[in-house]
Amino acid sequence: MGSPVPHLVLHPDPVLREPAREVERFDEELHELVAHMKRLMREHEGVGLAAPQVGRSVRLFLCNSGAEGEEDQVFINPEVLEADGPQDWAEEGCLSLPGIHGRVRRPTRIRLRARNLEGEAFEAHKDLIRSMIDRIDDEIPRPDASVLEKLDSVFRPARHKVQKKGLNSVD
Predict the structure, then answer these.
(1) CA dihedral 157, 44, 103, 130 (to 10 degrees)
(2) Model confidence pLDDT, tens digit, residues 3-46
(3) Are 73 and 83 in contact (CB under 8 A)?
(4) How many CB atoms neighbour CB 44 within 10 A?
(5) Would you state the pLDDT for residue 94?
(6) Among 43, 76, 84, 109, which one is most buried in terms of CB atoms within 10 A?
(7) Which residues pair with 94 in a beta bridge?
């Protein structure tokens, strides 16, 4: 995971194109990374943030529905077990592509397995994460796809705008 303090990285940072690795050590360094990610997510008024967006190519994301007083949810090595039901459309953005939004279609039911900060496995169901259901698929770093590969289908028309600006990172 590295020792520099994490900062929000923007397109076209290469880490956004790397497939994410599994988290193997559930130690103090992981706790510090999550604390920095929570701070950055709040500072940038986000409701979801994946580790690659802070320069760490590991399978970890946070999300929060934005409801007052709600705790940030931490998902480590997440795995979607089931995603079905009717599809709903929503307007979404990505902190790594500032100012760019797109309409995204998501399943209304989702069930996933992940680990918490102590490395304990848990499952999350629609009832547990109802208000965050649209964030999970967007933020989940998968081993077979980079953050940008997932975003390409949604934000492809806007990508040239970001590349023209030459944006790389925000502290």
Answers:
(1) 150
(2) 567 889 998 899 888 889 999 999 999 999 999 999 999 899 88
(3) no
(4) 13
(5) 85
(6) 76
(7) 97
Location of structure tokens 């040239």: 160
pLDDT tens per residue, range 89-98: 777 788 888 8
Three-class SS state of 24: coil
pLDDT digits (tens, 9 = 90+) for 48-101: 899 999 999 999 999 886 677 778 999 999 988 987 777 777 777 888 888 888
Closest CA to 109 of 127, 91, 135: 127
3-class DSSP assignment, residue 154: helix
CA 77 to chain centre: 12
Active site residues: 139
Residue 95's φ and ψ, nearest 5 degrees, are -60, -25
Query: Which of 26, 41, 3, 106 shows the shortest CA–CA distance to 49?
Result: 41
